[in-house]
Structures are given as structure tokens and as C-alpha cells.
Amino acid sequence: MSSIGKRNRQRKKGMRRRKKGMRRRKKGMRRRKKGMRRRKKGMRRRKKGMRRRKKGMRRRKKGMRRRKKGMRRRKKGMRQRKKGMRQKERNETEKERNETEKERNETEKERNEIETKAREEEN
């Protein structure tokens, strides 16, 4: 076996002994991460298994879990009541709109009748 091969094997042994998280490559040995292989620059993304939590996103202990202020559950009954109120308002406004529309139509009709009478008189 060549001396280079021996040296390589020795180095590998040393790397195996290290803890997984501590594994480091020498500068010249740098390699792309598994998920980064054969990916275009714009599509760079980690594989599912390689996802790591960011430091700030570390999981809290179970007892520490709290809902954020905005995430507080809104009670269903309240939501439905509000929904009903909104519907009622909508109906009222719709009624008013319809009434005004009717009045406008009536006035329009009257105006048209007057105009037609005037034209007939002119003729």
C-alpha cells in the first residue's frame, strides 16, 4: 500500500472518532453539502433531512410553551354573533338602497311623461 493511502486511512480513522457535530474538513477538503449538489444557483435549498433550526427558533420546553398575544383563540360564539350583526347591517343598507332606487325610478318616469306631453303639445 502506498504511503499516501496509509495516510488517508489514518486521517479517516481520526475523523470517525470525532463526534458527529464536531466533524470538520480541512480547508482543501471542502465539499458541498449533500442537498446542495447539482442545484442551480437560484434553486439552492437544503434537503428535507438537512433542515436545521435557527438558533433563535430552538424549541421551548413543554411547560414554557405559550400562545403569542395575537394567537389567542377567538371564541366561536362571539365570531358568529358578530357575523350575524354584520349581515343585519348589510340587509338594512340593502333595503335603504332599494327604496332610494325605487324613488329615483318613479321621479324619472314622471319626468319622462312630462317631457313626452310637452313634445306632443309642440307637434
Automatic annotation (TrEMBL):
Annotated Basic residues bias: 1-85
Stretch list, region Disordered: 1-123
Residue stretches of biased makeup (Basic and acidic residues): 86-123
Domain of life assignment: Eukaryota
The protein, known as: Uncharacterized protein
Record organism: Biomphalaria pfeifferi (Bloodfluke planorb)
